[in-house]
Amino acid sequence: MITTRKNARVVLALVSLVLFIALYYSKNLSFSYDFESFFPDNDSALPFYKDYRKAFGHDNEFVLIALENEKGIFKKDFLTKADSLTKQLKRLPFVEEVISPSNLKKTSLQGFASAQIPLLHTQDKGLYKDDSAYIYKSPQWKNNFFSADGKSICFYLKSKDGLSKNKSDTLAAGIKRLISNLKFDSFHLAGRIFAQSVFLEKLQKQFALFILISLVFVILLLWFTFKNIQAVLLPISLIIISTIITFGIMGALDKPIDIMTAMIPTMIFIAGMSDVIHFYTKYNDEILAGKNQTDTLKLIFKEVTQPTLLTLISTVVGFLSLCYSGIKPVRDFGIYTSVGIAVAFLLTYTYLPAVLSLLKAHPQPFPKGRGKGVKVFPERKDVGGELHKLFFWVIRKGKAIALITSLLMLASVWGMFKIVPNQKLLDDLSDKEPVKQDFLFFEEHYGGVRPLEIDITIKDANKTIWNYEVMKQLNVVDSFVAQTYQPGFMLSPVSLVKSVNEAYDGDYSLPRDTTDYNRDVKLIAANKNSHNFRRLVQPDGKRSHISAKIKDYGSQIVDRYNTQLTKFVNQHTDTSAIKLTITGTTNLIDLNNSYLVTNTMQGLLTGILALALLTFIIHRSFKMVLVFLIPNVVPLLIMAGIMGLFHIPLKASTAIFFSIAFGIATDDTIHFISRFKLELSKSTSPLRAFKHTYAETGKPVFLTTLILLGGFISLILSDFESIRLFGLLTCLTLLVALLAEIVLLPVLLMALFRKMKS
Asked: How far apart are CA 234 and CA 273, in angstroms?
């Protein structure tokens, strides 16, 4: 036990050594927003997508550029600048292809030969009227490269696959510079490289913001509680050391800081401070009561260590339940946060008593009438006095409390069934954010930005994509996709055949007979070795795909559309010959959301069962298991009801919150029950034991709840909606959990110890 000055110096030397090593490895830390790291890695959809990507390239390595001209797009000066931009963009590093209105071609038949001629004659004003008439009558150009209102055009830039963060930033800066130099009326940009940059910039700013707000709040709260600079500096230094050690471990393992792990300092501040507060409150009370420092520390190790160890287990179980997730950043968040909380616990019982042993305690005399042997509890006007009143109010209103809780549960269960799982790509960003506004512009004028990818595999050994019967079935699927998803930039084998048929017959449709169809396919086959052709159809004709951009309807609506598509394909195609599979990055993100919700609920159930088993082992009573679980499950049910009633969607952030909130909320229940058990062993009267428990644990319970609220309130200030929702729901849960702790838990314990009623 760390009560001697010699032992204290040894402990502090070891802590200093570990801190130095952690600081050394912390220099390896970096910020990252790896979009693909959030793909579910325990599902067959990911290997399939990787194989699909190998065949046809990345579906999210693109940039959409919209240029506006208020006087209309068919103006020579505007189109000349657009053509200049096209040529300059091609020269940028990491650009693979640029498709724009100024370089689009259409097939023209000249005698018995075909030729590719410009779709838009940018330098010949006399042809603008004919070009415009052709463009706006053809479904393959309108709302793809030309807006319906005639005031903007769109570029499609294909970047090289797998660009790193630095290369993406270089390309993004180059695109913005070129567009700005040409001084268009207005322009809009969409693509991963722009969204990624915004996310990382905000992530870095908020990482510091969360730490600062949590630190300031905790300092103020500790000062107003203890009015002692020592009581402020020691807990704060402990939490800072815990955070540095945790990040040192991350740095040593080359784990970057992402949108999830950016919350780790806040989590350590919140969960770690709980044990520190219980330790220091007991220490402060005993010193003020006149006990010497050595005896006080021995008493703390005897009475406080066990319940704080149990709270550590409950909190860690909550975070480790995230390991059920198939998403690596979520698992890492659960693991490293658990490590940080465990480090904070170890420092609470090593570093903290070591420092206290080296510092001279300064006991303060009791106010008049509050010395030993004086029954001050009934007459106190401070927090203890208020708790005394609340204790007897709870005893008198036990039945009413039970009835109100039951009614709240019924309402919460009703609201819970209204929860809808849903996730959008840029949910996290405000509608006022420029990148989000650009995103919405493309949804309004060009079909959208969200990739839709459908793999086409020919299973029949005797057929290929170019078989007429196969193409007719794919044409039906194409029409269904166009009608259901309302996409833009749709590309498929069918659209390729239609564009050739339009050159021959002036009709953008699939030929009605095999003679015309074979004529079109013959012309297409002449280009089958080109790079662009290979990105659409494999050389053997056995595999192709439908690629489009759609609005970000949200995972709920897209999932409904996908289900309709699957049903339609099964009814209208020969599934023994053709296999269509929905894939792509956004499909994986939707699966991610679905799995995360399921896995988090499994993790939460596992956490509840683990803590129920632990409670039974300690107390040897199924009734005590119920007494422990009910006050902690009730807040979660109420939050689920609130989510349903206020239409808060169930997604990654709101699903994760349940496991974490349960792990944190159980802390005070453990302290309360552990103290009650201790007081019961000292007293013959359960009522007296209960009253002492209320007085002993009430103050730290209120204080830790305030600290938890202070930490999570900082998350509500985040620019990311997922983090804001996480913070808001957790704050509400903690408030409800506090009420359950001081109101419902006593009622349950009274029901268990019925002798108290007498």
From this structure: 11
DSSP 8-state secondary structure symbol assigned to residue 620: -
And the tokens for 230?
């020592």
Interatomic CA distance for residues 12 and 6, integer angstroms: 10
Residue 168: CA count within 13 A, CB half-sphere: 23
Q: CA nearest 637: which of 411, 398, 421?
A: 411
Taking CA atoms, 154 is separated from 76, 79, 90, 91, 147, in Å, by: 17, 12, 15, 19, 8
The total number of residues written for the chain in this structure: 758
Residue whose tokens read 């049903």: 567
Query: Whose CA is closest to 657, among 738, 597, 711, 709?
Result: 597
CB atoms within 10 A of CB 726: 24
Q: Are 294 and 3 in contact (CB under 8 A)?
A: yes
DSSP single-letter state for residue 508: -
Q: How far apart are the first and last CA of the chain?
A: 43
Tell me which long-range contacts 284-293 makes (C-beta under 8 A, separation of at least 24). Answer: 284/226, 284/228, 284/231, 287/361, 287/362, 287/363, 288/363, 288/364, 288/366, 289/366, 289/372, 290/363, 290/372, 292/361, 293/356, 293/357, 293/361
Q: At which residue do the structure tokens 């314990």 appear?
A: 749
Closest CA to 709 of 273, 258, 246, 207: 273
Strand order in the sheet with 152-159: 95-99, 152-159, 62-68, 186-191
Using an 8 Å Cβ cutoff, are 408 and 636 in contact?
no
Helices (H) and strands (E) in the chain, counts: 27, 10
Instruction: For the chain, give every residue range classified as CATH 1.20.1640.10.
Output: 1-58+228-362
Contact call for residues 451 and 549 (beta carbons, < 8 A): yes
For 1-58+228-362, give the CATH class: mainly alpha
pLDDT of residue 481: 95
| Helix (H), strand (E), coil (C) string for 545-559 | EEEEEECCCCHHHHH
Q: Take residue 731 and report the two structure tokens written for it.
A: 């704050």
Q: Can you point out the beta strands (E) in 15-88?
A: 62-68
Tokens of 321: 């339940």
pLDDT digits (tens, 9 = 90+) for 169-203: 899 999 999 999 999 999 999 998 888 778 777 77
Decide: helix, strand or coil at residue 289. Answer: coil
CA 635 to chain centre: 22
pLDDT tens track for 358-416: 876 554 444 444 444 433 333 334 555 566 777 778 778 888 888 998 899 999 999 88
The low-confidence residues of the chain, meaning pLDDT below 50, are 363-381, 755-758
| CA 702 to each of CA 649, 668, 698, 738: distance values in angstroms, whole numbers, following the listed order | 31, 9, 6, 8
User: Quick one: 382 exposed, middle or buried, by C-beta within 10 A (0-12, 13-18, 19+)?
Assistant: exposed
- Give the pLDDT score at 213: 78
What are the E-state strand segments in 636-684?
Answer: none
Cβ neighbours of 208 (radius 10 Å): 11
